[in-house]
Amino acid sequence: MRVIELKKYNDRWPGEFQLEVGLIKAVLSEHLICAHHIGSTAIKGCCAKPMIDIIVEVMSLDKVDQNNHPLEKLGYEVKGEFGVVGRRFFMKGDDKRTHHLHVFESGNLDIERHRLFVEYMNAHADQMAKYSKLKMELSQRYRQHPDEYSAGKAAFIKSIDLAAVEWASG
Fold this sequence. Notes:
alpha+beta; Beta Polymerase, domain 2
């Protein structure tokens, strides 16, 4: 059973992201357009599950589907869309997950949504602190219930998504 265990922000997380992206680029090479560090490990000062979330933007998901085996060799488990239309999702690390890889075709709106969330939170320490506090409270309440933990964050995340779009629009 997975347990929600949050850690203080770790300055090594951006480097771990860069290292993993290097491995992914070697596998997806000509298909990869760019990669983004997303999720709480990309938000300076925010507590997080010590798991690096990566979005990779590609020209074609069909090409990614044809490259599942090399990603499996890197330790990724292929999960398909995994509840999000237009995404390919991969997990690394068994029960002690270390990485989540989200692959989208260029132009998918989820890329911008995730990217803006991180940028907004990094620019608004007050919101980051509120989010971090909420996550700590939820992790204590739902330590062995990941779905409830995620559901508890949903309204806050939605409000930040809306604020981030407005903020980015100037």
